[in-house]
C-alpha cells in the first residue's frame, strides 16, 4: 500500500538524481506495459522490473474528480466533457464566476480567498470547498492562505489551459520544469511502493556501518547552554539517552517541544507548540475482483479498469476523501494484478473522533459501504480489507499556527538542532521539499548554508516551481 500517494516527481535535479541513484530507472517494460504494448523512454542499461526489484518504474499520471457521480479532470480542464458533465447552467455560472475573479481579485486572507482568486466562486464551491472541509475538518475560510501558497501555488484554470496548448504545439513534449506539479502526466515510482525506497536506503546505510534504531519513541530532549545535550528514547521498554554533535528532528514540533520540558522552554513557546493543530489519517485497503466503474477514456488498461492513480471524491454524501487504485501505481503491489484490483480509501479525521475510535472490522464494513454508495464496487464483492491509522499526518494551518514563527525563532536558537521534513517544520510540504530540507540541513552542518535556508524551502511562492 501507498499511504499517500507519493508521486516521485521533482523539478529539483538533486532530488531526481538521488532517487535514481538509490533505485535505478527501469530499462525494460513492466508487466502491464508489456501486456498492453505501451511505449516509454526506458533507461539504457536500466534494470528489468520483471527480473529485479531495485528499480524505479515510469508511470502514467491520471487523477480525476468524482462529482455528481461523474468524472472530471483534475485539475479542472476546459474540455467538452467537463461542460457536458456540469450541464449548461453550471457551465455558464462557472464561466461568469471565473471571469469575475480574473477582473476583481479579493484580498487573500484565507484559503477560500486563494482558491476563489484562481478559479472563481462557483468552481470553488463545486470542486474545492467540500473536499477541503473533508481534509481539514474546517471551512477554507478558517484556514491560512499559506497552505495554498505552498501546495497549489501556481495552479489555476489558466495554467491548466496553457499546459494543454503548450503540449499541442510542442507535439506533446514540453519542458517539465515549466509545468506545475499538479499538471504532470508522468512520474517515476518504486516497484513495490514508496516504502521500498526507504527500506533500500536503510539497507545501504547499514552496509556502510550506520546504525538505525527502529521503534524508539523520543521521550526527553535535554537542553544545556543553548544546545541539545542528549535525547532520551524508549527502546525495548527501557529509556536510554543518546548524545551527538548534531540533531536532525523530523518529529512533530508539538512533541519535540513537549520532550524538552515546560521548565526549559519559554512559556509562550511551550503554549503555542502544545496547541499546534494536526489532521490525522486513516486508509483502508480493499481487494476486489473488479470495479463497477467503466473505463471510458482512451487509455488502455489491464482488464479495462479505470486508469486513475487516484480519484478525488467530491461527493458530499460520503466521508471518503480520496481513492487510490494501486494496480495503476505499480502492478507489483498487487499479488494477482491480472485478476484482482487493489484499492485504497483515504479518510481524514482527528485522533479520538468517531472515525478514529471505530474498531477495525466496523470501519472496514463502513468503508466498503461507502464504495458501494458511490458506485465503485459492490460491498458483497470485497474479498479482503485492511485498515491503517496514521497520527499527525498533516500539520494544519489554523489556530495557534498563526504564531508558529515564535516557536521557530526559539528552535533556531538551539545551535545544534536542525528541524526538517513535514512535521519537523510544521509545514505541509511535498516529499521532495521535505527531502530538500534535510539536504540543506546537512549543508548547514558543513558550513555551506544557514538555518534560514532550511526554512526558506517552499516558503516563497515561486520557489522550486521554476528553474
Characterization of the model:
Helix content is 36%, strand content 19%. It is built from 19 helices and 14 strands. The strands form four sheets. Strands 3-2-10-11-12-9-13 form a seven-stranded mixed β-sheet. The chain has a three-stranded antiparallel β-sheet with strand order 5-6-7. Helix 4 crosses helix 5, helix 5 packs across helix 6 and helix 12 crosses helix 16. 35% of the residues are buried.
Question: How would the blueprint of this fold be written?
Answer:
Elements: H1 13-22, H2 31-36, E1 56-60, E2 63-67, E3 70-73, H3 80-86, H4 88-103, H5 111-119, H6 121-127, H7 129-136, H8 146-151, H9 157-169, E4 186-190, H10 194-207, E5 217-224, E6 227-235, E7 238-242, E8 247-249, H11 253-260, H12 267-274, E9 278-288, E10 310-313, E11 322-325, H13 326-329, E12 341-349, H14 354-357, H15 360-373, E13 384-395, H16 404-411, E14 417-419, H17 421-424, H18 431-445, H19 451-456
Parallel strand pairs: 2-10, 8-14
Antiparallel strand pairs: 1-4, 2-3, 5-6, 6-7, 9-12, 9-13, 10-11, 11-12
Helix pairs in contact: 4-5, 5-6, 11-12, 12-16
Amino acid at each position: 500500500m501507498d499511504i499517500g500517494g507519493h508521486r516521485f516527481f521533482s523539478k529539483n535535479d538533486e532530488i531526481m538524481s538521488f532517487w535514481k541513484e538509490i533505485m535505478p530507472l527501469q530499462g525494460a517494460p513492466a508487466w502491464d506495459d508489456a501486456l498492453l504494448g505501451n511505449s516509454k523512454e526506458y533507461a539504457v542499461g536500466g534494470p528489468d522490473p520483471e527480473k529485479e526489484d531495485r528499480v524505479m518504474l515510469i508511470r502514467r499520471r491520471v487523477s480525476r474528480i468524482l462529482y455528481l457521480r461523474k468524472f472530471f479532470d483534475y485539475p479542472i480542464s476546459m474540455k467538452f466533457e467537463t461542460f457536458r458533465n456540469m450541464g449548461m447552467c453550471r457551465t455558464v455560472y462557472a464561466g461568469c464566476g471565473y471571469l469575475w475573479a480574473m477582473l476583481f481579485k479579493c484580498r487573500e486572507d484565507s484559503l477560500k480567498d486563494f482558491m476563489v482568486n484562481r478559479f472563481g466562486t462557483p468552481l470553488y464551491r463545486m470542486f474545492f470547498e467540500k473536499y477541503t472541509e473533508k481534509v481539514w475538518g474546517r471551512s477554507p475560510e478558517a484556514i491560512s492562505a499559506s497552505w495554498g501558497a505552498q501546495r497549489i501555488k501556481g495552479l489555476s484554470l489558466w495554467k491548466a489551459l496553457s499546459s494543454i496548448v503548450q503540449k499541442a504545439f510542442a507535439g506533446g513534449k514540453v519542458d517539465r520544469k515549466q509545468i506545475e506539479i499538479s499538471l504532470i502526466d508522468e512520474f517515476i515510482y518504486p516497484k513495490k511502493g514508496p516504502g521500498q525506497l526507504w527500506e533500500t536506503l536503510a539497507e545501504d546505510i547499514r552496509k556502510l556501518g550506520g546504525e538505525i534504531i527502529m521503534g524508539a519513541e523520543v521521550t526527553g530532549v535535554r537542553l544545556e547552554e543553548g544546545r541539545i545535550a542528549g535525547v532520551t528514547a524508549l527502546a525495548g521498554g527501557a529509556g536510554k539517552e543518546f548524545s551527538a554533535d548534531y540533531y536532525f528532528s523530523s518529529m512533530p514540533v508539538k512533541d519535540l517541544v513537549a520532550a524538552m520540558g515546560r521548565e526549559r522552554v519559554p512559556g509562550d513557546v511551550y503554549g503555542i507548540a502544545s496547541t499546534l493543530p494536526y489532521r490525522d489519517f486513516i486508509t483502508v485497503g480493499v481487494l476486489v475482483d473488479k470495479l463497477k466503474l467503466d473505463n471510458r477514456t482512451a487509455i488502455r488498461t489491464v482488464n479495462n479498469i479505470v486508469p486513475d492513480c487516484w480519484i478525488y471524491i467530491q461527493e458530499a454524501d460520503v466521508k471518503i476523501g480520496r481513492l487510490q487504485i494501486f494496480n495503476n501505481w505499480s502492478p507489483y503491489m498487487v499479488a494477482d494484478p491480472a485478476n484482482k484490483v487493489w484499492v485504497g480509501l483515504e479518510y481524514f479525521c482527528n485522533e479520538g473522533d468517531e472515525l478514529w475510535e471505530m474498531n477495525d472490522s466496523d470501519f472496514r464494513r463502513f468503508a466498503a459501504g461507502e464504495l458501494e454508495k458511490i458506485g465503485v464496487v459492490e460491498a458483497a464483492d470485497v474479498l479482503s480489507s485492511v485498515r491503517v491509522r496514521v497520527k499527525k499526518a498533516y500539520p494544519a494551518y489554523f489556530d495557534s499556527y498563526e504564531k508558529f514563527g515564535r516557536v521557530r525563532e526559539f528552535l533556531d536558537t538551539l545551535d545544534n538542532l536542525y528541524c526538517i521534513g513535514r512535521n519537523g517544520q510544521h509545514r505541509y510540504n511535498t516529499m521532495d521539499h521535505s527531502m530538500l530540507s534535510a539536504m540543506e540541513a546537512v549543508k548547514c552542518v558543513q558550513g555551506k548554508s544557514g538555518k534560514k535556508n532550511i526554512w526558506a524551502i517552499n516558503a516563497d511562492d515561486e520557489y522550486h516551481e521554476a528553474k
